[in-house]
Amino acid sequence: LFQSAVIQEMESLKSLSKPLLFHRTDPSDITPSYLQFGDVLERWRQAFPEGTRIDARVYERSRLENGNVVTDFVGSLGLEQDEEFCLQDSRVNHSLDARAAALLLLANAAGAPYEGLLRLSKALSTVSGRARGTKRFLTTAEIEQLQSHYEADNRKLFADFIISGEGFGNPEATAPESSDVAPAGAEELAYYASIYDTLIAPPRELWLGELLTSRPLARIAGAPNAGWRGPEQDGVWSVGSESRLAFQLPQTHAESGPSHLLLTVAGHYTPGNTSTRIRTHQWEMDLSLENAELEIAIDDRVRSEGVEVQLLHHNPQSPDGWQDDPDHGLAFKLQFLRYNFAWNADSPA
Question: For a Cys staple, 124 with which of 37, 68, 100, 240, CB 3.0–4.6 Å?
């Protein structure tokens, strides 16, 4: 159920900004609250008069009527299925399709526009007439961690509510056996993960300082990632409240080489924006980037790791046709970049 909940959030585009599929944190940090069944039932009990009886039924396929949760639920209500009752093949389970969620993440990392992601999500979720993958992406250790996380809630559930169904006298009755076998689909998802990592965090470009526009500029901006949209004919739009510029420098001598570089930035803002908060590991300031020159000292960190400039946008504007969400808003269009080496503030090379 945890896997199903996570993948459903991905396929509905609720969590595409969080790479839950490939780089998971502690499962308890991202566990949907509605899977704490004891807490959910307790809220239901508080909504009804005192003395109301609540029977809880545990989802365990081997104990469900015909192994199907819908058939079991209908039967538990005492309802009979008529001739028009239609049941989808239980093998077709969109909420367990880790492959579809991975494809959506890859499309997002590759810079697919939001409208395109919506269409892709709809297409993936409406595939019918064939079985789709139900491979697990959780490792054995993660499954055990989830079991531990839910143990207290399960004990409360079994202590406070009447559990209907044979064999559910205690929380351990349906605990799956631990296995050291690698989860099905792990190798395939590792392949997707390597592609995702390359798209979302490509290696920094070596830049010799020549004037960059459009697509060459997009390489230094990391577009369509790092807070930038895909390149257009006249520049690259920032996306959301933060964008980054990152690049490597040619090797320079620590003593006789240049002491700093002068980075020229030019572009234009959307209405309501006139400046950007600029941050490097050396300094931070507010500055208009319509035509600006940034001075960055070439220290040991820059020589070894390269240059990284963080742009914090004050007021991203949602363009027409997009949802009103600052994560997708535009603030600044970067139109060209270049830099010169300098040995002092007055003598650029």
Answer: 100
Q: How far is residue 332's CA from residue 274's CA, in Å, rounded to a whole number?
A: 9
Q: Which residues contact 346 (CB under 8 A, 6 or more apart)?
A: none
Q: Which amino acid is it at 282?
A: Q
Q: Side-chain half-sphere of 227: how many Cα atoms within 13 Å?
A: 19
Helix (H, G, I), strand (E, B) or coil at 25: coil
- Contact status, residue 165 vs residue 63, Cβ threshold 8 Å: yes
Instruction: Work out the average pLDDT over 139-154.
Output: 80
At residue 206, the 3 state secondary structure works out as strand
C-alpha–C-alpha distance, residues 2 and 37, integer Å: 12
Q: Which helix (H) or strand (E) holds 278?
A: strand 276-279
- Please, where are the H alpha helices in the chain? 2-11, 37-46, 69-76, 98-109, 114-125, 140-160, 186-200, 214-221, 300-305
Averaged pLDDT for residues 37-62: 80
**3-state secondary structure at position 28:** helix
* DSSP character string of 77-100: TTPPP-TT-----TT--GGG-HHH
Tens of pLDDT along 54-90?
777 777 777 777 778 888 888 888 888 888 888 766 5
Return the closest-CA partner of residue 160 out of 33, 59, 40: 40
The Cβ of residue 33 has, within 10 Å, a number of other Cβ atoms equal to 7
| Separation of alpha carbons 32 and 18, rounded Å | 14
CA trace torsion 96, 173, 166, 75 (10° rounding): -20
User: How far from 338 is each of 148, 182, 261, 263, 341, CA to CA, in Å?
Assistant: 54, 49, 10, 6, 10
Largest CA distance in the chain: 88
φ, ψ for residue 213 (rounded to 5)? -135, 155
